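Explain this record to help learners:
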Amino acid sequence: MADSLTSFGGIIFGPNSQTTLLAFINASAAGSYGTVTEPSANPQKFPDPQNHFYQARGSSLAKCYYQSLYAPYEGLIVGEPLAAPFAQAASGGWIGVATNAVLSGTAQLGLAFSALDGNHPLQQIDLFVDGQYFQTLTNCAPSPGNLLTVALNGCPLTYTVPTNANLSDLQPRNHLYVTAGASQLALTFPLDTTKLADGFHDLAAMGYEGSDVRTQTRIILPIQIQNSPLSASLTLLDLPATAPVQETYHIQAAANTNSASAVSLFSNGGLLSTLANQSTATFTVNGSTLGVGLLPFYAQVQTTDGGQYKTQVQWVRLINPQ
């Protein structure tokens, strides 16, 4: 982060004789802040230098500014809000299940996380399926009745953790920080695969550091679910791995059944199109509508008896040759 005390650092459109925050962005700062009108001699309208302390603890750029700006209503923040170069991430892995394993019924899955050190314990693990929250697997909440004791300048202070407390209830004041959790979090949990569509999925376990920073550590496991004979494939008919964004392309999804009630095509932003009552569906995709970038494509088939199948994701990079 890089900031200045100029009066109009946040005015980035139109004439400005002062140094703007864009000068710091151009010099490779992750983010900067500037006021858009005369702030007068009020230091609360500028980031407190303590924001670098918050960043050193692992907080994201947005959170650093949130904690250090007391009067942000006349200012502008530009940069990458999730930048956290000093985040103290944990490590972890899946146990007893292989990548791309075929699962059915209720599958027993294992995973384990290890904190970086004793000052950054792990508090919670959540499970996400295909990027969406699925369930909380474990949560080491602050224990009711725990007695916290600290001496400040020789004066002892105590605090008893109440029932149903969380880290928000115990949020720090000034520079006294509280953590909750464990150095090692390992568990085995049942996954009812019948609640998910047959086909290909990504399981992501997210571990959260047990402090107000809440640094995240994610471990991903690609799997395939097969609880029925239903299957489907996705074919990029005229869309290569790298293609011009200005063109129009065709993508085909084919199911191994004549009872398909709907076939849907998905990419960035969600649903692109749905074709009804076709076991083999061909979609027309306008590249300029999707835009330049790396894009995932997959199809989902629904049958008249309620069956669902999700095809494997195929990635394409659309570019602007000009």
Observations:
- Helices lie at 21-26, 51-56, 61-68, 287-290.
- The chain is about 5% helix and 45% strand.
- Residues 78 and 169 are 31 Å apart (CA to CA).
